[in-house]
Design a protein that fits this description.
The chain is mostly helical. InterPro entries: DNA-bd_HTH_TetR-type_CS (IPR023772), Homeodomain-like_sf (IPR009057), HTH-type_TetR-like_transc_reg (IPR050109), HTH_TetR (IPR001647), Repressor_TetR_C (IPR004111), Tet_transcr_reg_TetR (IPR003012), Tet_transcr_reg_TetR-rel_C_sf (IPR036271).
Length: 189
């Protein structure tokens, strides 16, 4: 097997899904790949850079969703963007923990700036657009973090529909943002 960044990240994500974030170590990863631990440092200078690459790869599906078009409704787009991000985080065990605290870089940063420009061009003041992106992102990570931390546990009570709770919270954020932006909220269907 050729050892490259993509192979290492792929195997690290498999390890994450099998054992959880706390079990991901360069020693464990090197053992699984059949290499010596120092060979990993040829591709990643430390565990933190490996975790950053894993976080980026974990949300790659979300990162390839189409960017908003000028004709898109900003509310519909922001809701769907949050849903897509949630699906990406839920796709991996401890996906929210892995992603928490990361900062967009490179292509991800360029995409984030495009999204910000879209919201501003839709009529949101730049500061409100920034806070909207930050708030929906943090809400999504926090919701998934709680969901993944309590997986299989009924700490929130029996019958809690986490998707419905996420949607309700997202609707509250959107209603507040629409009101603040001077737009009437879209009617619920």
């Amino acid at each position: 097997m050729k050892l490259d960044r993509e192979t290492i990240v792929s195997e690290a994500l498999t390890l994450l899904d099998e054992l959880g974030l706390d079990a991901v170590s360069t020693r464990q990863l090197a053992k699984r790949l059949g290499v010596e631990q120092p060979s990993l440092y040829w591709h990643f200078r430390n565990k933190a850079s490996l975790l950053d690459a894993m976080a980026e790869a974990a949300v790659a599906g979300h990162a390839t969703t189409p960017l908003p078009a000028p004709s898109d409704d900003w509310r519909d787009w922001l809701v769907e963007n949050s849903r897509s991000f949630r699906r990406a985080l839920l796709a991996h065990r401890d996906g929210a923990r892995l992603h928490a605290g990361t900062t967009p870089q490179g292509v991800d940063l360029s995409r984030a700036l495009h999204k910000l420009e879209f919201l501003v061009s839709a009529g949101l003041p730049e500061q409100d657009a920034r806070i909207a992106m930050l708030t929906t992102s943090h809400f999504t990570v926090g919701s998934v973090l709680e969901e993944q931390a309590e997986a299989g546990d009924d700490a929130e009570g029996p019958g809690l529909d986490r998707t419905a709770a996420f949607e309700a919270g997202l609707a509250l954020i959107m209603d507040g943002l629409a009101q603040r932006a001077g737009h009437l909220p879209k009617r619920r269907r």
